[in-house]
Amino acid sequence: MKLLLSLVLSACLVSALAFTTDDTPRRVVKTDAEWKKILTPSQFTVLREHGTERAFTSPLNDIHDHGTFYCAGCHSPLFSSDTKFDSGTGWPSFYQPIAKTAVKETTDKTYGMVRTEVQCAVCGGHLGHVFNDGPKPTGLRYCMNGVAMTFEKK
To answer: If 0-12 CB within 10 Å is exposed, 13-18 middle and 19+ buried, where does residue 84 land?
Structure first.
């Protein structure tokens, strides 16, 4: 019974984080000036201007603790440490988001190539890209900019 109650409460928490009281997805919309007040310059460059941090510069790449990775812009949960793996690329990598609704994917045709961009589903912040060269069980590699996220240890 305790396990069932725990699962129900966990499901409610995830729903509460992703939806408003009328069951519409939560959205965070700010002007560039508002974003600049709450983000560091490097966070603003990545999240709002689709920048990329240099490989092997993010402290989040070396985190191996149990916890959750959140959007640095709106604090929405994005990835569980349970799905993080060392891809050798120099960016934090995950094989799946914490929930299907946590991120949205769009086509990115910049730099003369076609890639799948990953954005925060709540604030639209640029997180990184997803590739088809990840480990089982999904075969996906969500290659994220560490500066676009924060981490909370459990």
So the answer is: buried
Active site residues: 143
Mean per-residue pLDDT, 8-24: 43
Q: In what order do the strands lie in the sheet with 67-71?
A: 77-80, 67-71, 149-153
| pLDDT (0 to 100) of residue 24 | 57
* Among 14-18, 50-54, 60-64, 75-79, the least confident range: 14-18
Six-digit token string for 5: 């109650």
pTM: 0.83
| Domain annotation for the chain: domains and CATH numbers | 27-153 (2.170.150.20)
Q: Where are the beta strands (DSSP E) in the chain?
A: 67-71, 77-80, 84-85, 93-94, 103-108, 115-120, 126-131, 141-144, 149-153
Q: Which residue has the tokens 């961009």?
A: 117
* The two structure tokens encoding residue 56: 């092997």
